[in-house]
TrEMBL record, chains A, B:
Protein name from the UniProt record: Methylase
InterPro entries membership: Alpha/beta_knot_MTases, NA-bd_OB-fold, Put_MeTrfase-C9orf114-like, tRNA_m1G_MTases_N
Signal sequence bounds: none
Pfam families assigned: Methyltrn_RNA_3 (PF02598)
Record-linked PANTHER family: CLASS IV SAM-BINDING METHYLTRANSFERASE-RELATED, METHYLTRANSFERASE C9ORF114-RELATED
CDD domains: HsC9orf114-like
Length: 298, 298
C-alpha cells in the first residue's frame, strides 16, 4: 500500500487544498483485511490506559469514557485501541466503551452486574445505526442480536418482543442479523451496511507494539508540537490510526517512557493556535476527528 | 462591512479551498466596536438557556458547563451569549462559565458562597493566559486583578503575596493590570494582549433579539441540515457569531417556537456524515470551533 507524506510551509495554499480535497483512493479488499470494506477510510483511535489518571470521581470517570465513545460514534470510528501507558484503567475503559456500543436490549445478556458499570448510566446514548428501537420488523432490516441454542435450533434476540429463528450458518453470541421473514420471524447472519459501531481492543501492550498489531496503512500522531493540520499533506486511505496521549504526557513522551520509537506518517497539530495550556485527551479526540472528518470521501 | 456568502455543489474543490484559505481582512477599529481589536476574528458563541434540559445530575450539569467553557477557551472565544429558549438554567450557566473564567486567586473575592457553585470544582481548569500562577512579579507582566480602595489609595489583588498599588485611573472591581514596579509593587490598568478570556452575556432575550444586540458582522447557524462546511463559502471577519441549538431542538426550531425569523449568513453543517442520530450541544460547540478554527488567520 502506498504511503505519501510531505510537509512544507511555503506550499500552504496548495497543501491546504490537497489536505481536504484529495480524492480518496478506493480500498478494494486487501488480503488479510476486512473483506467488506470497499472504499474510503477505516478509522482507528488509540487512547492510553492512563486516560483517567486525573479523574477520581467515579461518575465523571464513566462520563469521560462516554465522551470518547460519543466522539468515536459521531465520526464513525470502527476501532478503539487502548494501549499500555502506565495507567490502571484499561479494563474499566474497555468495559464501558463496549457497554456504550451495545444496543440497550442486549446489555443485560452481555454484561453481568459488575462494579465498573455502576455509573454506566451517565454515559450519553450513542444513537448509532445498530441501536434500533423495538418496532415492527421489516423484511430486509438489519438488527444487532444475540444468538443462543435451544434444542437443536438457534434463536436470536434481536430486541423485538419474540426471538427470531436463525437460518444459515451462525454461532452463538453477539452477531448481526437480517430479517428474511416476519411471520414466522426468521433471520440470517449478515454484515452491517455502513457504519454500525466500533470494536474495542485492550492490547496490554505499549504504543509501538499496539500500532504494529493494528497493521495500519497510515498512522497519525497528535501533538501540540506537530505540523499545523492546515499545512500538512497526508494521503488518508485504508486503515488510518490516530494516536492520542494521556492527560499528563504527550504521545512522544509516552513512547520515550517505554523506550520505544515509532515512525509516524505525520505528527499533526489539529488545534493550531490553542489558547489553553493543554488540551485534554477527550477534547483532542473530538476536535481531531471533527477536523479529519472533513477529509472523508463520503 | 462587506458580507459575502454563496454555496454551490458544483464548485466543491474551489470553495473547499476558499473556505480555509481566504485571506482575512484586517479589522481596523470600527466605530462603536472594541477599539483594541486590530485584526482577525472575534468569536461569539450562542448557547440556549435550555442547554442542560436533559441533564439532571448536579455534578454532570456543572461538568457540561465546564465543557462549554473549555471549548470556548481552547479556541479563543471572547463572548458567550446565553439566549432564552425556554430553559431555566440561564443564571446557573452564566455563573459557572464566569467562575471557570475567573483566575483561581480571585474567585473567593468575586463569588460568594452560593448553591450553584457546589459542584464548580468538577469543571476542568481553563489554563488560559489570564490564569497565572503565584510567582515573582516581573515588570511589564500583565495580570488579572481585583481593585479595592483603602483610605485614599487604590490597591489591587493580582494573585501575589502582597497587594499592588494602582497608579493611573482605575475603578474598583475586577480589571487587568500591568506591573510597572516590583519594589514597591505598582501596577497600572491595561488591556490584555492576545486572548485573555471570555465575557458571558445572559440576555434573557430570544435568539433573534440576542443576535441583534450582539451586533455581529457574520452570523453562522449550525444545523445537521445546513450546508456541508466543505462546500460553504463564507467570509469570516470581524465579530463572528456561531449559534447552537438545544439538546432537544435545533436552531431553526427554537426560532419558530418563539415566532422569530433570522437571516443567517450561512447555516453550516460542521459534522458532515455524522453517524449518531443527534449531536449534543457541548459536542457541537467543540467540533464546530475545531473546524472553524482552521479559518483563523493567526
Amino acid at each position: 500500500m502506498q504511503k505519501f507524506f510531505t510537509t512544507s510551509k511555503s506550499r500552504r495554499v496548495e497543501t491546504f487544498e490537497s489536505l481536504l480535497n484529495r480524492p480518496l483512493k478506493h480500498h478494494h479488499s486487501l488480503p488479510g483485511k476486512r473483506e467488506l470494506r470497499m472504499a474510503g477510510i477505516t478509522w482507528h483511535v488509540f487512547i492510553p490506559d492512563s486516560l483517567l489518571e486525573e479523574t477520581h470521581d467515579p461518575k465523571l470517570r464513566a462520563y469521560k469514557v462516554g465522551q470518547i465513545a460519543r466522539a468515536a460514534a459521531i465520526f464513525g470510528v470502527e476501532h478503539i485501541w487502548i494501549y499500555r501507558a502506565g495507567g490502571r484503567d484499561g479494563r474499566f475503559i474497555k468495559t464501558l466503551l463496549e457497554y456504550a456500543e451495545t444496543p440497550q436490549y442486549l446489555r443485560k445478556r452481555l454484561f453481568p452486574l459488575m462494579p465498573e458499570l455502576r455509573y454506566a448510566g451517565v454515559m450519553p446514548p450513542l444513537q448509532i445505526p445498530s441501536h434500533k428501537p423495538k418496532e415492527s420488523p421489516r423484511i430486509g432490516e438489519i438488527r444487532e442480536g444475540f444468538a443462543y441454542r435451544k434444542g437443536k435450533k438457534l434463536f436470536a434476540d434481536i430486541g423485538l418482543d419474540r426471538p427470531a429463528l436463525v437460518k444459515g450458518v451462525a454461532q452463538e453470541g453477539r452477531g448481526t442479523f437480517k430479517v428474511i421473514s416476519v411471520k414466522p420471524l426468521r433471520v440470517v447472519p449478515t454484515k452491517p451496511e455502513g457504519y454500525w459501531g466500533y470494536k474495542v481492543h485492550l492490547t496490554r501492550m505499549t504504543l509501538a507494539k499496539t500500532l504494529k498489531k493494528a497493521n495500519l496503512d497510515v498512522v497519525i500522531a497528535t501533538s501540540r508540537k506537530g505540523v499545523d493540520v492546515r499545512r500538512a499533506d497526508v494521503t488518508l486511505e485504508g486503515d488510518v490510526g490516530i494516536v492520542f496521549g494521556s492527560p499528563r504526557r504527550g504521545v512522544m513522551e509516552i513512547l520515550r517512557e517505554f523506550n520505544e520509537d515509532y515512525e509516524f506518517d505525520v505528527i499533526l497539530n489539529t488545534i493550531p493556535g490553542q489558547k489553553t495550556k493543554t488540551v485534554r485527551t477527550e477534547e483532542a479526540v473530538l476536535a481531531t476527528l471533527a477536523v479529519l472528518n472533513l477529509m472523508r470521501g463520503d
